[in-house]
User: Fold this.
Amino acid sequence: MELRQLEYFVAVAEEQNFTRAAERVHISQSGVSAQIRRLERELGTELFDRSARTATLTVAGKAALGHARAALAAAGAVGQAVGEVTGLIRGRLTVGMVTGCTLTPLFDALAAFHRAHPGVEISLLEDNSDRLVERVRAGTIDLALIGTATTTPDGLDALTIVSERLVAAVPDSHPLVKQRRVTLRDLAAYPIVCMPPGTGLRTVFDRACTAQGVHPSIALQASAADAIADLAARGLGVAILSDSMAGSYRGRLTARTIDDIETPALLALIWKSTQNPSLRELLVHSRRAFNKPEPFQR
Assistant:
């Protein structure tokens, strides 16, 4: 008994016609008929009543149909499982990234995934974190790197990449450099340069201000850390950045941890489901690139 015989048997049973079944499986009618005859001889009984214009199942044929379909489905599942293991996966992945965030391990992960699975098309787009979360929930983005104030957005899975305190970054001549402690109320005396609403860093900052009843003056907003640092270096305001962001501008800016903002700003990868084998593979490469261990599997 061969899988192609079962395929032809199911096609005739569903089409109720040998000619239409032959067109469906792309071989000649005589070829379909010959293989069905071979199957019937092997089983020792006829599967179709050929006395009428339509090919109707015999009692034996009806009994065999469900099992034939199950066998074909199982064979397909075997092929898919082997294909996933051997990297023979095809499709498309859409990856989102918060605007202005250049995180090279993410690019390393995408490059490693592409080398391993060149048949999968990758799209990369930028947006603010709030919109990226909604697009992942809606299924229009498979994986996104976002800034967030919470470990895991509701309804999604997440892998935290960076968790850091917020700092105020200013030129060496700024009065805040002489202070040993910097608080939100200290910052309220100066114009602020920070990221726009919808970003994780801004969410942490705004929530802390609201909790303490502080109303800072947001003078300038920019999505990229470089722009925020440049504006602050020119004396246009106090830059609100994460610790590692500010570290990139040592020599131009001095950073002071904001003492009364204890909630860290997070960078995280988020996704909705790992049913997509391509996404599962990309997550494996992402964990490696960010040096994050695989979760324990029972």
In short: The chain has a mean pLDDT of 88. The first helix runs from residue 3 to 15.
